[in-house]
Amino acid sequence: MSRLARPVAAIGALIGLFGLVLQYWLLYADMSAQGASVFEITWRYFVWFTLLTNTFVTLVMARAALKPESLAGLNAPRIELMAVTSILFVCIVYNLLLASRWDPQGWQKVADVIVHDIVPVTFVLFWLVRPHGTLTLRHAAFAALWPLAYAVYGLTRGLFDNFYPYFFMDPTTLSYGQIALNLVGLVVAFGLGALLLLGISRVLGSRKP
């Protein structure tokens, strides 16, 4: 394993934590001013795929910084493949489909750039210097479970609060058939991304030390 993995993981975990805390503080300031409780704010915070995925990859990097030789748990190769595919998905989908729909300013812009751009780039760098050569096609399929689980989670919790954060999975404006097509397309794209990363991992794993 590259000696760079641990410092990159430590820096990435700190950046990720800062971005997550900053985004929570901004949401708290906005929603509490409207009378929302801490529970309601926290409930809303964890509706976003972006923030759940940033939490996921921040935990992966934090564990790698603390246990750099471990290839188990959150640092198992298949989990790290899931994490890198997911955070790249966040970056690409946001910048292609969602960024044009709003114009954050000030500290919100800072948080926005951290969770959608800086953390993804940092995590990719971390993943590239991790051990490679053990991933299989089955692990690429496993990686696709994260967006599938989120789709079930997001649609289910929306039944309780009628809040759907993403226009492409909002049953108040789209039919469930259209949502299903959207999700199939996104999962297929996610799976192709996982396969591409699997190929990169195999190349990296085949290199001589």
Strand content: under 5%
Uncertain spans, ≥5 residues at pLDDT below 50?
none
Mean pLDDT: 93
First-last Cα distance: 9 Å
For the sheet with most strands, the description reads: none
Order of helices and strands: HHHHHHHH
Radius of gyration: 18 Å
Shape: globular
Number of strands: 0
* Helix amount: over 70%
> What count of helical segments does DSSP give?
8
- Please state the structural category: mainly alpha
Topology:
Layout: H1 5-32, H2 38-45, H3 49-66, H4 77-98, H5 106-128, H6 137-143, H7 145-161, H8 176-206
Helix pairs in contact: 1-2, 1-3, 1-5, 3-4, 3-5, 4-5, 4-6, 4-8, 6-8
List keywords for this structure.
209 residues; mainly alpha; 8 helices
Q: Explain this structure to me?
A:
With 209 residues, this protein is mainly α. It is 74% helix and 0% strand. The chain is built from eight helices and no strands. It has helices at 5-32, 38-45, 49-66, 77-98, 106-128, 137-143, 145-161, 176-206.
How would you concisely characterize the structure shown here?
The protein is built from eight helices and no strands. With 209 residues, the chain is mainly α.
